[in-house]
């Protein structure tokens, strides 16, 4: 595991810590060949330099975010922000369905919007896959 991500997880309050550790294991299992790091203060996994999935601890929950998630056609993932991101929020590990997360991770490999070059394109997103 990335040491910075491990430190992030360990620094959380107990319930959030357990959720973060579970999400981290699921992501690492589903995306073993990706780069991971703390990016803008939260753990994020990248495919070829493009942010794909990450999580962060909010006041009342842990948010799992897929940068291209609005294109996954998944009811449980809710739109986030003004681009193509979608999220799931968790307050307990019992709410995390490993089959759902695995399916979303598979979709994240196949469905990607080019966030890596969004600044160069002045806010225009282009679908990669």
Question: Could you explain the architecture of this structure?
Answer:
This protein has 129 residues and is an alpha+beta fold. It has helices spanning 3-10, 14-30, 98-110; strands at 35-39, 42-47, 50-57, 62-66, 78-79, 86-90. The chain has a single domain, classed as Aspartate Aminotransferase, domain 1 (Alpha-Beta Complex), CATH 3.90.1150. The protein contains three helices and six strands; from the N terminus they run H-H-E-E-E-E-E-E-H. A hairpin with a 6-residue loop joins strand 5 (78-79) and strand 6 (86-90). The chain is globular. The mean pLDDT is 95.
Short description:
The chain is an alpha+beta fold and 129 residues long. The protein has helices spanning 3-10, 14-30, 98-110, and strands spanning 35-39, 42-47, 50-57, 62-66, 78-79, 86-90.
């Amino acid at each position: 595991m990335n040491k910075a991500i491990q430190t992030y997880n360990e620094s959380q309050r107990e319930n959030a810590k357990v959720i973060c550790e579970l999400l981290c294991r699921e992501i690492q299992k589903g995306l073993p060949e990706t780069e991971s790091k703390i990016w803008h203060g939260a753990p994020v996994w990248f495919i070829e330099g493009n942010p794909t999935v990450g999580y962060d601890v909010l006041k009342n929950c842990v948010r799992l975010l897929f940068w291209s998630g609005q294109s996954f056609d998944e009811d449980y993932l809710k739109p986030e922000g003004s681009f193509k991101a979608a999220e799931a929020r968790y307050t307990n590990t019992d709410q995390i369905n490993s089959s759902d997360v695995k399916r979303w991770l598979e979709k994240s490999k196949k469905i990607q919007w080019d966030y890596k070059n969004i600044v160069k394109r002045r806010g225009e997103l282009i679908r990669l896959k």
